[in-house]
Amino acid sequence: MTANQNDDRSVPPPSTAGLVLNIADLNINRENMFLDDPEDLYINVVADNTLYASTITFEELNLLPEVIRGLYREMGFKRPSKIQAITLPMISSPSYKDLIAQAHNGTGKTTCFGLGMLGRVDPNLRAPQALHLPHQALKQ
Ligand SMILES: Nc1ncnc2c1ncn2[C@@H]1O[C@H](COP(=O)(O)OP(=O)(O)OP(=O)(O)O)[C@@H](O)[C@H]1O
């Protein structure tokens, strides 16, 4: 998926204020298929002239209430980034097992994995349930 091919800091994104992410459009029940048009998803979550913040809120991403509280209070986040707005509904959907996403450095990709994992683990089960393995660049 090339969620934000236009993420060049010198080029402002197209003006799409007022458009919101329609999660139904993500076809999240489709398994092992590519998104029809990733560019549509990019446009739907782009805030007017902001490169990193999306037009939607964490509440719209169906995260656990405790996770949302932590994002606001502990982390001080205000809104999901674009890559988070696009990928978190997919990560949270059990039919998606694998996801390849591309976004600019520091736009919150790693956080996507963390939030996605938190949404899928059972806090009452006292056993390892998830592994987050950094890619080669982070290990160096
Ligand atoms: N929605 C958000 N709002 C504000 N800050 C955020 C948000 N998501 C992530 N961050 C912060 O932005 C920084 C970069 O996040 P993260 O490491 O997830 O990005 P990344 O795309 O994986 O980065 P890299 O490309 O360098 O691996 C971190 O300090 C993280 O806490």
UniProtKB/TrEMBL annotation:
GO terms for molecular function: ATP binding; hydrolase activity; RNA binding; RNA helicase activity. It catalyses: ATP + H2O = ADP + phosphate + H(+). Signal peptide: none annotated. The keyword Glycoprotein does not apply. A motif (Q motif) lies at residues 56-85. InterPro entries: DEAD/DEAH_box_helicase_dom, P-loop_NTPase, RNA_helicase_DEAD_Q_motif. Residues 56-85 form the DEAD-box RNA helicase Q domain. PROSITE patterns: Q_MOTIF. It is an enzyme of class 3 (hydrolase). Keywords: ATP-binding, Helicase, Hydrolase, Nucleotide-binding, RNA-binding. Pfam families: DEAD. Its EC number is 3.6.4.13. The Q motif is unique to and characteristic of the DEAD box family of RNA helicases and controls ATP binding and hydrolysis. RNA helicase. PANTHER family: RNA HELICASE. Belongs to the DEAD box helicase family. This is ATP-dependent RNA helicase. The lineage of its organism: Eukaryota, Viridiplantae, Streptophyta, Embryophyta, Tracheophyta.
